[in-house]
């Protein structure tokens, strides 16, 4: 019997899945088991499309098709959370199991607290995440740094701090630190990300801490909820998944690796946020960068915090219709509405038609706001600070006092 808090090694007993999977196939094995036993109506995951740079989101209802999801796509920079709202009816009418990276999970929480996703119907199988590489950067990096044609690469992995590629006739690895110092490597938001082990999912699965003869053949699973414990218990009792307790040494190595990743993320935060300067200098920088905006709306469309049917950026009295670049108000609206809850998923930057570092600006603001108000987005159902303010009461107070200061940030 598996219990919340357990630390295990797990792997699938299905040989075909094990062969296709990244580290023993516990994740795919569990997803398949849940579908077979009708514990969920569908599995929403990611599969390889045209090549390793093409991560495609798929919704699978036939257990035989789950095998296609096996394997980790490190150039898969998509965010699954908002797709549940957009295309899967907010998980209101079906039970869905999903593999989730930290940002996928955080996006689900932020949407759930805005009543845009029904988390009661979602099983989150978390996957640890050291970071993902933009497909454009990956191709460039493989061509320029590895000296290999990106089109002949059939496998990539990130292992022991190296980005490793396999291609017809060979394989090569280069240290991620070296690549990143030269402007390649993980996306900038991933470098700053500190949600490496998604413990707020039902299970947190990854390869860190898997040692000895199980290295590469099993996944380290931390059981994070009763729901997760229950599913893993059923899957082991039915013989779909095999487990063993994680050894102390493995637990220690996993913790050390996570801590090293935190330190690295702090270093990148310091560097990235430092590059923005502060006060007026920061404002000028943001105004100058966003002046390239062509109002394609990709940042809003893909942000898990933006869900409004009537977006304020489309109100003619706030932002002039048909004006490109839009006035700075367009971006101010996003900053004021989103910054407290930004999960640093990077979508608004990755998909920006003009390569504006939107996620950097928003993340820098979020970190400042978290320091001020203590609100940490994406990790539970706690509401953002502004959601706790009742508008009619605030209007009354404003009328009575003439003060529009909602929070006294200087109060001790
Ligand atoms: P599998 O059975 O192969 O299942 C993998 C599942 O991941 C599939 O359901 C698939 O749909 C899903 N998936 C693949 N790519 C993506 C993606 N881009 N976004 C969302 N879901 C995806 N573990 C660590 O311990 N340290 C790390 O630094 C680390 N980095 C990772 C980075 C990425 C981008 C990903 C996707 C995973 C990472 N992992 C990391 C987790 C690890 O690679 C394995 O996924 C995990 O050990 C489970 O192995 P498995 O054999 O059970 O998974
Ligand atoms: Fe992984 Fe974090 Fe990047 Fe998401 S933002 S892909 S969880 S490193
Ligand atoms: Fe993600 Fe950008 Fe929205 Fe932040 S503002 S949650 S980085 S899309
Ligand atoms: Fe809603 Fe503001 Fe986002 Fe528009 S910018 S969708 S109004 S949160
Ligand atoms: Fe402007 Fe970029 Fe947002 Fe498009 S994605 S509206 S170009 S900031």
* Number of distinct beta strands: 11
Rg for CA atoms: 22 Å
Instruction: Note the run of SSEs as H and E.
Output: EHHEEHEHEHEEEHHEEHEHHHHHHH
What's the arrangement of strands in the largest beta sheet? 3-2-4-5-9-10-1-11
Question: Termini distance?
Answer: 49 Å
Which class do the helix and strand fractions yield? alpha/beta
Helix count? 15
Largest sheet: 8 strands, mixed
Each distinct ligand: flavin-adenine dinucleotide, iron/sulfur cluster
Net shape: globular
Give the percentage of residues in beta strands: 15-25%
Helix content: 25-40%
Number of domains: 2
The poorly predicted ranges are none
Name the average pLDDT. 95
Walkthrough of the structure:
With 412 residues, the chain is α/β, with parallel strands linked by helices. It folds into 2 domains: 7-132 and 186-267, no CATH class; 277-401. The chain is 38% helix and 15% strand. It contains 15 helices and 11 strands. It has helices at residues 15-20, 26-36, 81-87, 102-113, 135-144, 176-181, 188-192, 226-237, 248-275, 279-290, 298-302, 329-338, 347-350, 358-373, 391-401; strands at residues 7-12, 42-48, 55-60, 96-100, 122-127, 153-159, 162-167, 170-175, 203-206, 219-223, 241-245. The strands form 2 sheets. An 8-stranded mixed β-sheet has the order 3-2-4-5-9-10-1-11. Strands 6-7-8 form a 3-stranded antiparallel β-sheet. A hairpin with a 2-residue loop joins β6 and β7 (162-167). α3 packs across α4. It starts with 6 loop residues before the first strand and ends in an 11-residue tail after the last helix. One iron/sulfur cluster is lined by residues 101-103, 129, 131-132, 189-190, 193, 195, 344-346.
């Amino acid at each position: 019997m598996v219990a919340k808090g357990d630390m295990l090694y797990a792997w699938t007993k299905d040989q075909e899945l094990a062969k296709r999977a990244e580290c023993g196939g516990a994740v795919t094995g569990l997803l398949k088991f849940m579908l077979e036993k009708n514990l969920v109506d569908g599995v929403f995951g990611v599969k390889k499309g045209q090549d390793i740079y093409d991560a495609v989101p798929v919704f699978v209802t036939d257990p035989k098709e789950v095998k296609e999801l096996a394997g980790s796509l490190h150039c898969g920079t998509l965010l699954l959370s908002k797709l549940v709202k957009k295309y899967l009816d907010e998980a209101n009418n079906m039970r869905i199991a999903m593999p989730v990276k930290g940002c996928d999970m955080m996006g689900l929480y932020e949407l759930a607290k805005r009543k845009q996703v029904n988390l009661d119907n979602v099983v989150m199988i978390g996957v640890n995440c050291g970071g993902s590489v933009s497909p454009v950067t990956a191709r460039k990096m493989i061509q320029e740094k590895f000296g290999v044609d990106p089109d002949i690469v059939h496998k990539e992995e990130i292992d022991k701090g190296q980005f490793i590629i396999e291609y017809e006739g060979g394989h090569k690895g280069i240290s991620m630190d070296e690549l990143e110092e030269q402007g390649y490597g993980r996306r900038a938001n991933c470098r700053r990300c500190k949600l490496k082990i998604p413990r707020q999912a039902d299970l947190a699965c990854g390869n860190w801490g898997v040692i000895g003869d199980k290295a590469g053949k099993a996944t380290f699973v931390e059981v994070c909820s009763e729901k997760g414990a229950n599913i893993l218990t059923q899957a082991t009792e039915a013989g779909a998944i095999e487990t063993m307790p994680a050894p102390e040494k493995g637990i220690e190595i996993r913790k050390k690796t996570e801590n090293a990743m935190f330190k690295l993320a702090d270093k990148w935060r310091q560097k990235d946020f430092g590059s923005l300067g502060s006060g007026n200098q920061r404002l000028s920088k943001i105004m100058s960068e966003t002046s390239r905006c062509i109002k394609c709306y990709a940042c809003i469309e893909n942000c898990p915090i933006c869900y409004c049917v009537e977006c304020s950026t489309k109100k003619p009295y706030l932002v002039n219709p048909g004006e490109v670049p839009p006035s700075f108000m367009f971006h101010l609206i996003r900053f004021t509405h989103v910054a407290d809850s930004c999960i640093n998923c990077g979508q608004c930057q990755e998909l920006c038609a003009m390569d504006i570092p939107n996620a950097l600006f928003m993340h820098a603001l979020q970190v400042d706001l978290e320091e001020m108000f203590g609100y940490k987005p994406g990790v539970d159902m706690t509401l953002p600070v502004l959601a706790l303010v009742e508008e009619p009461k605030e209007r009354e107070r404003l009328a009575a006092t003439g003060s529009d200061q909602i929070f006294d940030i200087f109060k001790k």
